[in-house]
Design a protein that fits this description.
Blueprint lengths: L11 E3 L5 H12 L8 H14 L3 E3 L2 E2 L2 E4 L6 E11 L9 E10 L3 H15 L2 H9 L4 H9 L1
Parallel strand pairs: 1-5, 3-6, 4-6
Antiparallel strand pairs: 2-3, 5-6
């Protein structure tokens, strides 16, 4: 499964929220615009429950909130960029500048883990991270950088 197959310019945004909760709600709203997401409120709840278990702020300015639920038909990925950064309770205490939300269907664990791995491997590259943040207002560039 390729990450690029689940990315679109319509689901990339410069984040308006300044708190973790605002950002998560903003990205879930954007994900819910996809026909593959059938219940926005269920997705919000699942994302927040996942965050209660352990923050998805993985460090290096990256957060990858994610959830698998029945009301998601196929993988939906939304990307939010905050040049200012948002406190995501990351292990390294750095604010998240790039937040990649993954809404996943139940029963596709292997694909789910593969997408998570592709996101983290891609964004661990400091050059890609800085270029993505600089392109906060240019979804086509973000798509090219992350999806390639």
């Amino acid at each position: 499964m390729r990450l690029a197959d689940h990315l679109s310019m319509e689901r990339m945004t410069r984040l308006e929220g300044t708190t973790k909760e605002e950002v998560l709600r903003e990205l879930v709203r954007k994900a819910a615009e996809s026909p593959s997401v059938h219940d926005e409120e269920e997705l919000v709840q699942a994302i927040f429950e996942r965050e209660e278990i352990l923050s998805t702020g993985i460090g290096l300015g990256i957060a990858v909130p994610h959830a698998k639920i029945e009301s998601v038909e196929d993988f939906v990925i939304t990307i939010g960029i905050s040049p200012e950064g948002v406190d995501f309770d990351a292990l390294d205490q750095t604010p998240a500048h790039i937040v990649v939300l993954i809404a996943a269907p139940v029963g596709r664990q292997r694909d789910y883990l593969g997408l998570l791995a592709q996101v983290t491997v891609t964004l661990k590259n400091p050059d890609i991270r800085s270029r993505v943040i600089a392109a906060a207002d240019d979804p086509a560039t973000v798509l090219r950088l992350i999806g390639s």
